[in-house]
Amino acid sequence: MKLFGSYLKYRAKIMITCAVVALIFSSSYLLFNMPDIAVLYPLILTLGTGLIALVFDYVFFLRRHKQILSEEMPAPRDQLEEDYQLIIEKLNEEAKIAEQKASSDYTGMVEYYTVWAHQIKTPIAAMRLNLQSEDTESARKMMGDLNRIEAYVEMVLTFLRLESDNTDYLIKEYDIDEIVRSSVRKFSREFILKKLKLVYEPVEYKAISDSKWLSFIVEQIISNAVKYTSEGSVSIYMKEPGVLCIEDTGIGISEEDLPRIFENGYTGFNGREDKRASGIGLYLCKRIADNLGHKISAESKQGVGTKMFLDLRSKPVGVE
C-alpha cells in the first residue's frame, strides 16, 4: 500500500493534468447544450483507457522497483534516468575505493599497535622481574600500577581485534574454575595491598566458550571490583547453574548510570570521580560476551556494592 501511494505521488502531475483536460472537454460539451450521452460516453471511454494505462504503468513501475532492490540496474528510459545511473555508478566506484583504503589503513593500524604492544611488553616484563625481588608496600603498589598498564595495552589490542573480520576464536568446552583462578592470580598483589578479602567458591562448571576472550571479561570485572572497593571483599560464586556472579562491597553504581554502563565511553559518576576511567572496559566485555553467545548484566546500589552476572548458558557462535 505504501508503494502504491508512492506511485500515485510520482504520477500525480500527469493524473491531475489528464483530469483537468477531461473536465475542460466535458465543460465545453455541456456549454453547447449537447446531449448527456454525448458527454458521458467519451468521458467513460477516456477514464477506462486511462485506468488501463495506469494499471500497466504501475506494473512496469513495480517491476523496475524490484530490479533496483535486487541491485540490478534497469535500462534507462530517457536521458535523465541515464544521467542518474551514471552518477550512481560513479558513487559506487568511489565508495569501493574508500572502503579499500579504509580496510588498508585499518590493517596497517592493527599491525602497528600489535608491534607496539609487543615492544612495550618487554620493559613491562623487565620491571616486573625487578619488582618481584622486593616485598615492600611500595613494590606491591608499583606492581599493581604495572598490571594496570599491561591491562590497558591488552584493552587497546582487544578493541582493535574486535573490529577485525577474522577474530581468533577457539570455541570448545572450558573449565570455568581454571579461568577464574588464573584471572584472580593476576590481582593477588592488589588484594593484599588494599587488604581486601577474596571469597571464592569453586563453581564446578564447564561452558562452551573461548578461553582467552572469556578470561578478558572475567579479568575486567575483577579489575573494576578491586579498583572501586576500598575495604570489604570481592566474592566469586555461581548465582545459579551457568550464571557466574562477581560481587564487591565497593562504591557501587548510581541508579541513573546503571542502564548505560555497557555503552562505549560512558563512565558515569564513578568515572567523573576517577579521572583514569576510560569507559571502554565494560563496553568491550559486552561486545565479547555477545560474540561468544553469553549475556552480561549488573545489579548495583550506590555505597553498597555491585554484582556483575555473566550468563554462560547461552548458545555460543559454534563449536570446534
Overall radius of gyration: 34 Å
Low-pLDDT parts are none
Averaging pLDDT over every residue, what do you get? 82
Rough shape? elongated
Q: What is the H-and-E element order?
A: HHHHHEHHEEHEEHHEE
Question: Widest sheet: strand order?
Answer: 2-4-5-7-6
Beta-strand proportion: 5-15%
Q: What share of residues is helical?
A: 55-70%
Separate helix tally = 10
Count of extended strands: 7
Descriptive overview:
- The two termini are 47 Å apart.
- Strand 6 and strand 7 form a beta hairpin.
- Helix 4 (79-132) runs antiparallel to helix 5 (137-162), helix 5 (137-162) packs across helix 7 (188-194) and helix 8 (211-227) runs antiparallel to helix 10.
- The chain is α+β, with helices and mostly antiparallel strands.
- It is built from ten helices and seven strands.
- 61% of the residues lie in helices and 12% in strands.
- The protein is elongated and about 115 Å long.
- Strands 2-4-5-7-6 form a five-stranded mixed β-sheet, covered by helices on one side. A two-stranded antiparallel sheet has the order 1-3.
- The protein has helices spanning 2-10, 12-31, 36-69, 79-132, 137-162, 176-185, 188-194, 211-227, 268-273, 281-292; strands at 172-175, 197-200, 206-209, 233-240, 243-248, 295-301, 305-311.
